[in-house]
Amino acid sequence: MTPAPxxxxxxxxxxxxxxxxxxxxxxxxxxxxALYFICGAALTRRSLSDEVARTGGVVTGxxxxxxxxxxxxxxxxxxxxxxxxxxxxxxxxxxxxxxxxLVSVFVGRLIAGRVLAPVDRLISTTRxxxxxxxxxxxxxKGADDELKRLADTIDDMxxxxxxxxxxxxxxxxxxxxxxxxxxxxxxxxxxVAVRDLPSGAPARRSLERVDRATQxxxxxxxxxxxxxxxxxxxxxxxxxxxxxxxxxIREESRALAPxxxxxxxxxxxxxxxxxxxxxxxxxxxxxxxLVDNALRHADPGTAVRLTGAEADGQVRVTVHNEGPAIPAxxxxxxxDRFWRGERRADRPGSGLGLxxxxxxxxxxxxxxxxxxxxxxxxxxxxxxxxxxRVQSPPSMQSPPSVQSPPSVxxxxxxxxPHASPSPPSPPGRPSPAARKxxxxxxxxx
Length: 445
Known about the structure:
The protein has 445 residues and is of the alpha+beta class.
């Protein structure tokens, strides 16, 4: 859900500027008002007509000037002059107050901005720290004031979060890794036991059900291990051409469309390179998961499009299919772990495919969004920062082809969508090639 835009009028900078302007304006108003009354009192206290009647003249500029007029006739002129002087003074003071108010507002915003500049730097640094990379710290340098204590408090909180995330990822990775060996042993023994039983035997059917459950468990373990590894991987990246990655995925995923549905995989390729800095295997898995989902949920006879483009220094990869629209209430849960929706609860999968996509993309500093509307289909878009923002990048690398070692078994259907398909096997029994292959998500190059 998109957060509401900040209320600019109620920002801290505007509030500080308002307080500063109010204080300055209030003091100035008190001073100007006092000055006005003091001037009025001074004019009233010094009567020129009385001075003429007493001395026969007035003193101006240190010199005495004789006045040859009746003092009583000077009273109206003196009163009119005093009123004109006070009126002019009031007008000048009012304009002065208005000008002072405008200047105080400008100066107040300027001072508030300078006072809050360190806070803005704290906010900017904190925003750059992602949940998948908690190794950065603010490390504010300066006097031991409120700002430094705030920065130190945020750093302490990040230390605790980093420890918690690292412990969680290590536990998931270690548990998944330790479970792979017993699962491999179970599946190997099941394979041997199934081969020794005649076709159609009740015991064989029971073992095949156990085998299918073990396949699902193996897929879940492999996905958990992949998710834990790629969420914590922040080094060893290289420059990857996403356009070449898309071409490879299109070539290798065309055979994964459900048979008999007429679903095809297409895309555009004008020879333009789309360089990003990242892990080619992780990006291959993320895009492959989206393509696999699009192929499985596309309407019969439609096309799935995998396209890439570069704009504003960012690389965008879009996977679009013409399948049924995803309800708006479900879209916000698509990237949750183990969430498959009520209508998809009976479909195969671990519920981690899109969570892996989001984990990989977030680890690369990007975002993944979904747009689904009735009649137009569903489009997933991965946005990654372009490699032009990276200084002194390494040489361009094409996406590698993944070769799986034969030591760890893996069920069919959990290999990545861009892996080479295995030969068909009899119903209810996975192929030997699938049993001997290791899914790409658990293979660290």
